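Just wondering, does anyone understand these tokens?
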Amino acid sequence: MNSAYLVLLVLLIIYIPIYVWVWKNPEKAKGFHLVKYGPCLMISTRIGIGLMDRLSKYTRFWRFFGFISKLISAILLFLMLYMMVVAILAIPSRIGSESIGIEYALAIPGFNPILPLSYGIVALLIAMAVHEFGHGVQTRANDADVKSTGLLYGVVPLGAYVEPDDEQMRTKSRRVQMDMYTAGISVNTFLAIFCMILLVFSCGQISTDDPDAAGVSSVDMNSPAYLAEIPASALIMSAAVIMDDGTVSEFHELTTVEFDDIFSLDFVDPTLDFDPREKYILEYRMEDGIHRTSDEGIQIGAFIKTVTVGSAADKAGIEYGTFLQSMTIDGTVYEFGGCHEFKEVMETTYPGQEIKVTTISMDTGEGYELKDYYVTLTSKGGVGFLGLSVNTSGMSLITPEAYLDRATDPFYNVTEEPFSYVQSLLSYMSGPFNGMTPVHEDVRWWYDAPAGEIFWIIMSLLYWIFWLDLLLAISNALPAYPFDGGFIFAGGINWLLERLGVKDEAKRQTMSDNVSNAVSNVTMFAFVMVILSFLL
């Protein structure tokens, strides 16, 4: 059994008798500050209420903060809907693909592979605490009582909570209720922004002696680089071709070329170029400063790492794990020594164009095989789309300077299109799935950081506070109960109905409840389907 499922089963076995005891002995359970809350337990305290009272005295500020909170929550609500639509449309493409495992669905530090135990626990507690604290301060600022604070516990810890006096809140205006519901989202957002500003400032203190070197950020399994034992985190310095007689030519210095956010290797000498029909010895440097060479020759070129299902390349039968040798377009032959050359050529194509693609198989000692494919390009972004993802011989390359820029800039390489900011932010949020935290410990030797390891500890903590606060803010904007977004959406519908002329408050409330309940059910169903598409 998967260890994640085993841990979840153990937690369930522990939780069930505790829940049953609290259910059957509510008065005794209150003595231990335990209260049943649906399928969950609330661990009730009054921690933080005194501080809420002191801060809530600045009522004018919290009135203005309420306006800002509603604006932020509305933006994040639409962002969450956009993410849901994109995720739903992508479900068919994930059918049959490898699942990520249930452990990724649970935000438990140390249990979820992308959440480190130490940083994850601290950042998660901070994110949950400030979220609920925001609700509490806004409640007190509008003369409503906070009955208790505490933790919400299911089979796993689900979060912190603040329990306002519901009877008092029901007597408050719609504005007051919306200010309270949106406060947690906005506080998480502001804390995330603050941590990102500190993170960017901190990274400004980092320097590197090799800003433009070819850094290996990852190596694909069973690729030419993997078989040649090129390690991830290596800085590639030079290359020499293996001659027909088995001798090695002179080593030539290498540089990196970037096109369309893709990095590939190239010679500093413009008269030289890589050819995937040849084999090369690579010279690289590791953390100890020693220059090493690859144990065996390696083909260098545009390596096909993935083929998009249903794409033109897929229908033509182009195979992943091979190299792009050339493309023939309108009688002109374009040979590829690197990923950047392939990307540059593709930018000149158009949908419906017929081309010939020539690939070279990996040479495992028995020579290589050339294959020709005739392909009709489809469309993506107004240019031709082949449906191939390539890198350099199975290596994902990046320069230390570009790596640091990506690690600290959520809007790295945005375009003039407004949605590019959204896509860039979502891409940045996926960083932990690619090992960025924000700078993976394996590549930290590329940089000189003030205070050494202490600096990286502070930087990592800032990153995880940013990441979890932003994640909590966005997820709580989901327009479904019991998320804050469900109550915010209901309040928005109520306001809209009033503007449309529905003056009867009871009728307006009934209509808004019906609409928000329907939207909530549909949204939660879609949300569960998206999660299952990743897990199953």
User: Anything to note?
Assistant: Residues 3-200+466-535 form one domain. The longest strand covers residues 146-153. The chain has two domains: 3-200+466-535, 212-398.
